[in-house]
Write a structure and sequence with these properties.
97 residues; mainly alpha; Rossmann fold; two-stranded parallel ribbon; elongated
């Protein structure tokens, strides 16, 4: 794409103005917690390792963390929790085998 000098000057002016504005960015942790809150998911089941520790640092007070001793157990607890919250046991029993 070829730009004329006027277009190039306008583009540079826009870029300079953007650089002068302070950039306020949220962290991935903040965005993740906001997304979970938006969907009403405030209970976290887990078996934290070193990779999860940054996510769990400054854990929000409106969230609940349920610790499991093994990944398989944690998955079962989360599955059971959601099934009981939405009465999925009845749906599973009514489903054809």
């Amino acid at each position: 794409m070829v730009m004329g000098l006027t277009e190039l000057g306008a583009r540079l002016k826009t870029l300079r103005q953007a650089e002068e504005r302070p950039a306020v960015m949220k962290t991935v942790r903040q965005v993740a917690y906001e997304l979970l809150r938006t969907h009403g998911m405030t209970t976290v089941f887990g078996n934290p390792g070193s990779n999860e520790l940054p996510f769990l640092s400054q854990f929000p007070s409106d969230f609940r963390y349920i610790l499991g001793l093994h990944e398989g157990v944690v998955l079962g607890m989360a599955d059971g929790s959601i099934a009981s919250a939405y009465n999925l046991e009845t749906a599973f029993r009514l489903a054809p085998l």
